[in-house]
Amino acid sequence: MASESSFDIVCKVDLQEVDNAIQQTMKEISTRFDFRGSNTRLTREAFELILQSADAYKAKSALEVFHQRLAKRSVSVRALKTTDPEPAAGGTVRIKMTIQEGIPQEKAKEIVRLIKDSGVKVQASIQGDQLRVKGKNKDELQQVIQSLRAENLDIEMQFVNYR
Q: pLDDT digits over 99-138, tens only?
């Protein structure tokens, strides 16, 4: 009697960890000498982050500090879609970031195609903003996970509900 095993591919970001990284970033920026008087701010509303600073150099430096804080809190930077610095009101510069929540449909189709092209005997199906991969052999599922981790898909993926 062969039972099927499965796992889900999801993209979820812990927003509390993002908020903690924002607070740590703002604390560090407020104490650093090179940010004095720059009025650098980092705010989050829902799934959008806005970093505003006096110039592009300070904005990119603050973004680097934020990325370091995210890494320390185990949040992948690949879960953020960051725009280039753009001019904002009052001669400041703004960088917008969007937190990726769920796998976009076109990326999901690309992942399914990669799984099918790998030749492993598993079935992949798109279920809303996540994917489910089923197979009879757990070793084949592990092989799929390893091959997807090796691919450069520019999205953050977690493999959950492995059974």
A: 988 888 998 999 999 999 888 899 999 998 899 999 998 8
Count CB atoms within 10 A of the CB of residue 136: 13
d(CA 99, CA 86): 19
Dihedral of alpha carbons 26, 29, 30, 36, sign: negative
- List CB contacts of 156: < 8 A, sequence separation 6 or more: 11, 13, 76, 78, 79, 100
| Cα 2 from chain centre | 36
The CATH topology of domain 5-12+102-160 is Alpha-Beta Plaits (3.30.70)
Residue with tokens 């799984």: 115
Cα–Cα nearest to 129, from 154, 156, 150, 149: 156
Q: CA-CA distance, 63 to 126, in Å (whole number)?
A: 34
Place of tokens 């150099």: 57
pTM confidence score: 0.83
Class of the CATH domain delimited by 15-99: alpha beta
With 0-12 CB in 10 A as exposed, 13-18 as middle and 19+ as buried, what is 15? middle
